[in-house]
């Protein structure tokens, strides 16, 4: 009987507690519409009601837990048959109800705290926006100019850094190409020094080609002169 009475009280309390948490956000919106200068609900009646109801529900849950423990002790006592299915079923049902009520209470409480934290954050942001809007137009204009100038300086620094990066990459590329050319030249010199006979043969071939070119040119010149003499005589 005590367990059922506490369960009924808890059911009514949890319903009221859930309604309070549901109506919290809507009430906050209505107050913001009526006045933007209304302080946050840290000390409001809804917060006080929330704290009171939370304490009452926690007390009822503690009492119901104690009664369930007493019922469990009774079912485990020596004078009660251990195989009484009705008693075990009743005890398990009360335990399930206690678990459901505890879960629902913690879930509703967590939702309420999350909504209140969100509303507090929104109120703080709103105050910052209002304080910013209430500033003088000259100061705001100067701030905008300073921000634009700062952005221009950042863009200039970025362009300079990109130009320096391109120049450094070009320098590294040219240095790498210079090293490759030096390596090729050193390899060619090594081959020439290692194979002098080949170098001498190449020189002889070049001399013979020059000599053949001179002979061929002389023959063509003589033939041309003879043709001209024959044509004029």
From TrEMBL:
PANTHER family with a match to the protein in the record: GOLGI SNAP RECEPTOR COMPLEX MEMBER 1, GOS-28 SNARE- RELATED
Predominant location category: Golgi
Job of this protein: Involved in transport from the ER to the Golgi apparatus as well as in intra-Golgi transport. It belongs to a super-family of proteins called t-SNAREs or soluble NSF (N-ethylmaleimide-sensitive factor) attachment protein receptor. May play a protective role against hydrogen peroxide induced cytotoxicity under glutathione depleted conditions in neuronal cells by regulating the intracellular ROS levels via inhibition of p38 MAPK (MAPK11, MAPK12, MAPK13 and MAPK14). Participates in docking and fusion stage of ER to cis-Golgi transport.
Keyword line: Golgi apparatus, Membrane, Protein transport, Receptor, Transmembrane, Transmembrane helix, Transport
Keyword Transport: yes
GO cellular component labels: cis-Golgi network; Golgi medial cisterna; Golgi membrane; SNARE complex
Pfam families the UniProt entry points to: V-SNARE_C
Source organism superkingdom: Eukaryota
GO terms (BP aspect): endoplasmic reticulum to Golgi vesicle-mediated transport; inter-Golgi cisterna vesicle-mediated transport; protein transport; vesicle fusion
Protein family (similarity comment): Belongs to the GOSR1 family.
Matching CDD domains: SNARE_GS28 (cd15864)
Transmembrane parts of this sequence: 214-232
InterPro entries: Golgi_SNAP_su1
Name used for this protein in its record: Golgi SNAP receptor complex member 1
Entry membrane topology: Single-pass type IV membrane protein
Keyword hit for Amino-acid biosynthesis: no
GO molecular function, one term: SNAP receptor activity
Species name: Opisthocomus hoazin
Region spans: Disordered: 24-44
Compartments reported by the entry: Golgi apparatus membrane
């Amino acid at each position: 009987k005590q367990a059922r009475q506490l369960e009924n009280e808890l059911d009514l309390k949890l319903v009221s507690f859930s309604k309070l948490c549901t109506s919290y956000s809507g009430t906050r919106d209505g107050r913001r519409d009526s006045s933007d200068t209304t302080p946050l609900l840290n000390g409001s009646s809804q917060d006080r009601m929330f704290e009171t109801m939370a304490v009452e529900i926690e007390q009822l849950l503690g009492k119901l837990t104690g009664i369930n423990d007493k019922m469990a002790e009774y079912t485990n006592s020596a004078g009660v048959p251990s195989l009484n299915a009705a008693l075990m079923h009743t005890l398990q049902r009360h335990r399930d109800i206690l678990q459901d009520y505890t879960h629902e209470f913690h879930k509703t409480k967590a939702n309420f705290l999350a909504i209140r934290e969100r509303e507090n954050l929104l109120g703080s942001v709103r105050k910052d926006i209002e304080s910013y809007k209430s500033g003088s137009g000259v100061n705001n204009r100067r701030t905008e100019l300073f921000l634009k100038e700062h952005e221009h300086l950042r863009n200039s620094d970025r362009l300079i850094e990109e130009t320096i990066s391109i120049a450094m990459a070009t320098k590294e590329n040219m240095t790498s190409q210079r090293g490759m050319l030096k390596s090729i030249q050193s390899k060619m010199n090594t081959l020439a020094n290692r194979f002098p006979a080949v170098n001498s043969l190449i020189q002889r071939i070049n001399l013979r080609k020059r000599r053949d070119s001179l002979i061929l040119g002389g023959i063509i010149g003589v033939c041309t002169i003879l043709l001209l003499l024959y044509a004029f005589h």
